[in-house]
Structure formats: C-alpha cells, structure tokens
Write the structure tokens for this entry.
Amino acid sequence: MARSPVDTPFLSIDESKMGQNILEMSGVAARSGVNLRPHAKTHKIPEIARRQVEAGAVGITVAKVSEAEVMADGGLEDIFIAYPLVTEGKIRRATSLAERVRLIVAVDSLQGARTMSSVARTEGVTLEVRLEVDTGLRRTGIPRGKAADLAVEISGFENLDLTGIYTYRGAVLEDGSPTLDLKRAGHEEGRLIVSVADEIRERGIDVRDVSPGSTPTARYVAGIEGVTEIRPGTYVFYDAMQAAMGVCSLDDCAARVTATVVSRPSPTLAIIDGGSKTFATDVQPGKEPSNLEGFGHVMGHPNAVLARLTEEHGMLTVDEDDDLGVGDTVEIIPNHVCSTVNLHDRVYLRSGDVTQTLWVAARGMMK
C-alpha cells in the first residue's frame, strides 16, 4: 500500500530492524538448545507475535488473561500467562481459553492454587501450571527456599498439572541490586532456577519446563544446563534503556516516535507535540542505568535531550546553533518501548517506501 501522510506524534517500526532482531534471538535460543517463548508485552500485536512463532518461537508469553484472549483470537495457539491468577473470574476465563489453545497459567501461592483447582474442577478442565520462583527481583514469586514445599502441595491439587517453574529477574543480582554485568546476572539467574528445579524433582515431581530469561540476560541464561526456555520481550524492538545497558546498539532499535517541533521559545529550548501521553515515563533519566539521559534518545541531534514532559508537551534542551525550527520533525527512541507502545492505538510498520498500519490489539488490556 502507498505511503500516506501521518499526523504527529506517531510510533513507527522499522520492519527490517525488527525482523533482524527476531531472527537473532531465535538464533540465540536455537544455538543453546532451548525454547523461545517471547513476551508479547512489548508489541501487543498478534501479527508480530505470529512472525516470532514463524521464526522459531514455540509460543508466546503474556501478563493478562485479556492479552491471552486477544492473542488467541489473533491465531496464537500456545500461550503462557506469566502472572499469578488468584480470582475466580480470571481463572474461569482461563479455563475457557484452555479449551481453545494450549494455555499455561502461573501460581505462586497455596491460596492461588487452591482457588485455581476449585474453579478448574467446577469447569471440568485441567490447567497446565507453572510455579513462579523469586530469584532476586523481590516481586511476585515464592522464595526459593519455600518453592519445593509449595510445589509438593500444588501437585496434590485436582485439575492442576504442574509442569514447570519460571522466574523473571532482569538485570539484577540475587540480592536485588541492579547490575550492568549481564553475563553474571544471567548465569546466576539460570543456576538459581535450575537448582530449584532439581530440589523439586528430588521430591518426586517431574519439572519439565525451567523458564527464566529477559532481554538483558537471555543470551547468557540460555547457556546454563538445565534451562529449557527463555522469555525475552523487549528484543523485538529494543529501546534506549537496552542500548544504555549495552544489550544492543541504538541502530538496533526498531521503534521510534516521530514528533513535530511546535515552538522554539528560546535558543536552547524546543517544544515538541509529544509528552507523557506519547512517551512512557516509568524509566526516567538519572535512574538505572545511570547513563540514560532524558526520556528518549533524539536521533540526528547529538546534544538534544528530551529533558521534561507534561501531558501534551515535550521539552527538548538543544544547542543554540541547532537549527531545529517550528514545523520540523524529530525521531526519538523511547526509553521504555513496552510502556510506550501501550500509549498508542496503532503503529506504522515501515518497509522501504511501504507503510502498513498495525493496530495495537492488546493495548490497555489490564484484566
């Protein structure tokens, strides 16, 4: 289809860069002999999830039942909801979905497992379950020392089939401290989750799936013996945060926001039409990684910084001799692309002179 003018601000995806990122991570998994189950939180688009599967992924990961429903409607047939389901309503929806696709659900508590078993029994469905283990992020997940005991109890519940364990940690160490030593973080994460799997097996439970891995650690955790699967997400587009951590280069980043300069009120300030409704603000400058400057990387203007955001305005600090003028456009790689995508109804997939509109079908799916 022919290219047509698009009003700013908008989010575009370079199809060539995205395709290369997809193939590269598929290669990481294949060379390590592990499955790849990418997290769809980054793109939230069934068409892109299907491309990941076509390139070798065994299925996808999501965080919400509603996201899983969207992906199933979009043709995905193997879905892991990597988030504890504890309410009857969500579990009931999961049992319905499990009759359509291979669905794996998550649990990290006895109460959650008890409720899940009760609903599944009532609905006449057996749910495939993975136990989440905390390996240092201090978020959801049973502490490692308690995982084997909980696994034994879960295995005794009716209509639950405990097939694996999983963890998510990212670029932190076991004590929760952030690190840029991604190799150390990945190796540590892999060894910890494999050791938990071994403890559970010693209790007589067959743990088939051992699933760690984020975009920063995936290539390292994949090489740990005993790991069977990795679940990176951001790699499909990458972003300024991943580049600052050394995971990728800025040139690898496939997603960019295009915005228009609407005001140049002073020689060192330019205002664009993209603010906090356009750029995610959950990864802020000055936080980890500490070399992250501004709310995104401004392409083609090496000294420009997206220093401040209000709802409708982005404030760029610029050099006095920067010739950015009212009506000019800039391209900015967002700090955190996953949350940025969730702010946009659609993205524009660019391949040479052809632009395709893709609806962000799982945008805003919070339940």
Summary: The longest strand covers residues 255-266. Residues 163 and 206 are 7 Å apart (CA to CA).
